Amino acid sequence: MNTRSTLLNLHAQLRERVRQAAQEQFNIALEQIPLEVPPRVELGDVAFPIAFELAKRIRQATGSSRAPRQIADILRPALETVEGVERVEVAGAGYLNVFFDRARLLAELFSEKRSSTRPAAEPEARPKRIVEHTNINPNKAAHIGHLRNAVLGDAFVRILRAAGERVEVQNYIDNTGVQVADTVVGFIHLEGMALSDVRALDQSLPVDRPFDYYCWDLYARVGLFYRNGDPDGPEDPEKLRLRAEVLHAIEKGDNEIAELADYVSMRIVECHLKTMERLGIRYDVLPRESEILHLHFWERAFERLKAAGVIRYETEGRNAGCWVMPTDLHLGTEEHEADKILVRSNGTVTYAGKDIAYQLWKLGLLGLDFYYKPFRTYPDGHRVWVTTSDAREHDPAAPKFGGGTIVYNVIDSRQSYTQEVVKRAVAALAPEVGADASVHLAYEMVALSPAACEELGIELSEEDRARPFVEMSGRKGLGVKADDLIDQLEAGALGEVEARHADLTEEEKRAVAHEIAVGALRYFLLKWTRNSVIAFDFKEALSFDGETGPYCQYAAVRAGSIFRKLDPEVRERAATMIEDALRNGETADLLRRVFASESGDELWTLVMLAARLEEVIAQAATAAEPAHLAKYAFQLAKAFNLFYHRHRIIGEEDAVKQAVLIAIADLVRRRLTEALNTLGISVPERM
RNA sequence: GCACCCGUAGCUCAGCUGGAUAGAGCGUUUGACUUCGAAUCAAAAGGUCGCAGGUUCGAGUCCUGCCGGGUGCACCA
């Protein structure tokens, strides 16, 4: 188990007392004891609205009614004797409001010197969770929609790890799909290139227009090519035949086209990983679709699906000759079939089928495994592995991948239906594992605001202009490339840094600008909840003011600068005094006096907010919603900025008050930094 | 047609398993740098939480029905 924080411990004790008291006083067994934070600090630090619930239960059990306030009064003594509680009040219609011993709690929180290195006790012993994210088709440069996926997935990974979980990160590579085929069609039929030509071209490209950028444009040209130059025209069956040929050759393998496709796709994967590393996003393993095919994962899954009666062969009707999985997810109509086709009448498997096989492997239910070889090593030594179907290439040093207890798939909510099919198929094959082991971590798309389209020089129809957003389209080359956006953010941040810190070296300035750019971008993508469509707007995304990453970073930097300038002796004396309050009642009384003063409530509110970090991380992990943590980080930064504005720490003359201010600033600095790190945002020394 | 998601301040969005007087950012108006950094802070204005019922001691939150918007329902991935 993870080391419990001071605050969570107190919560647990209070809940237990409520449970006992309800049992002893009213003979009622409570399953859940809701605990809430009162709207204002004058109403206490935590509140239990449990008397209302008990009033109802007592009436149901005995027929006699008791006033909630009276019930709360009876429960009160049980809470008052908990260590760390100063007093308990009954308020409103029957709330039990608990007030903590501020001096004691501050001292305890201050002494938790663990910050970001807090060891989650033996995560190795925890059941493995797998998070799959990024999953970009390897045929063109990444755009901001892909970034939302990767940043969301990566933040979630960090949140799980902060909560003490063991996590494996996978990035699925669809290297044999239609989109790769399209780019390959471009090289062969539009450019007239063979593998050697593509290699030479790749070598000759300028750094600011690398291979993935080239393919971005080429892919858009292929889209036009299929439609004979008219973006809104019909697709030409003759041209589509070229795609089918290429796709077939890729799937078959062991030929020149497949080699070309392999070069293109893996070069693009390299580009994607480079882009993602700019944002601090890394992976453990890259499972590839080519291996799912060549190592016959599908055949194994197919046999089991047939044996279990999960799928059936259609002999008549529209789906004659296909293997389908019946579903009741929606009703079938003339236009739409209710059943999901897994094997086409020509014998080939659909995406959903392959995904079922892959999901079974991820859960350790398939009974087959990939071979693995190293793909690349990050500067700190962390290695990413890629799958291979060639046993001779297998590196025995490879860790054991797959076999997760819970698998989170970070995938666009537009794929909810397919994900539901996959989940149900797995649950039908392995009822002991069930549907809950497969989690679709769905999120809404990133679209473009009309203003963003204008800035990109995209012509909008009357109709589109009236809409709140316009969907991006890789096929049309319509979108904001990830690296372009990061470049713009870095340029903007560099300008701000230069204006403030002319004394830094070029290298230092660029490093700080990079941290700010990453902070801005990651926060921008995380501040929205998952089911909110992001209408991308340049002005908003490039802003460093208001609810942004740099705002949060700035608060932490200011806190840091206090400690850079604070006399170490003063700091040491303050720490000694605060810790002494844990043992010495007189010292504790001195601290209590500070909290009882005019600004006491305001100071305490900040302490309680900072104390809530673990709770928020746990909640973000359970809800799989990093936005909760992002909102919290902003709230904490905002509260700190207010504190910073109202109190002079270094110049404070009252030694006791100064000690309290120092302890609070230190606590908030540590908590804010940890919250930001858990979102993948670092805090520079200066900015 | 069916399924899922969303309607909260001028705009963009929060609102944890139902809880006390519905909150932020942007924008608007007005103030605060001789101070540990103004990428900051403060104040003002801004709301029938889409509409109508229901459950509950209590509903922005849960249920039903409408209205409005988005997405999906491929022998694409």
UniProtKB/TrEMBL annotation:
<dbReference type="GO" id="GO:0006420">
    <property type="term" value="P:arginyl-tRNA aminoacylation"/>
</dbReference>
<dbReference type="Pfam" id="PF05746">
    <property type="entry name" value="DALR_1"/>
</dbReference>
<dbReference type="InterPro" id="IPR009080">
    <property type="entry name" value="tRNAsynth_Ia_anticodon-bd"/>
</dbReference>
<dbReference type="InterPro" id="IPR014729">
    <property type="entry name" value="Rossmann-like_a/b/a_fold"/>
</dbReference>
<keyword id="KW-0030">Aminoacyl-tRNA synthetase</keyword>
<dbReference type="GO" id="GO:0005524">
    <property type="term" value="F:ATP binding"/>
</dbReference>
<comment type="similarity">
    <text>Belongs to the class-I aminoacyl-tRNA synthetase family.</text>
</comment>
<dbReference type="Pfam" id="PF00750">
    <property type="entry name" value="tRNA-synt_1d"/>
</dbReference>
<feature type="domain" description="Arginyl tRNA synthetase N-terminal">
    <location>
        <begin position="12"/>
        <end position="100"/>
    </location>
</feature>
<dbReference type="InterPro" id="IPR035684">
    <property type="entry name" value="ArgRS_core"/>
</dbReference>
<dbReference type="InterPro" id="IPR008909">
    <property type="entry name" value="DALR_anticod-bd"/>
</dbReference>
<dbReference type="GO" id="GO:0005737">
    <property type="term" value="C:cytoplasm"/>
</dbReference>
<keyword id="KW-0648">Protein biosynthesis</keyword>
<dbReference type="GO" id="GO:0004814">
    <property type="term" value="F:arginine-tRNA ligase activity"/>
</dbReference>
<keyword id="KW-0067">ATP-binding</keyword>
<dbReference type="InterPro" id="IPR001278">
    <property type="entry name" value="Arg-tRNA-ligase"/>
</dbReference>
<protein>
    <recommendedName>
        <fullName>arginine--tRNA ligase</fullName>
        <ecNumber>6.1.1.19</ecNumber>
    </recommendedName>
</protein>
<dbReference type="InterPro" id="IPR005148">
    <property type="entry name" value="Arg-tRNA-synth_N"/>
</dbReference>
<dbReference type="InterPro" id="IPR036695">
    <property type="entry name" value="Arg-tRNA-synth_N_sf"/>
</dbReference>
<dbReference type="Pfam" id="PF03485">
    <property type="entry name" value="Arg_tRNA_synt_N"/>
</dbReference>
<keyword id="KW-0436">Ligase</keyword>
<keyword id="KW-0547">Nucleotide-binding</keyword>
<feature type="domain" description="DALR anticodon binding">
    <location>
        <begin position="552"/>
        <end position="687"/>
    </location>
</feature>
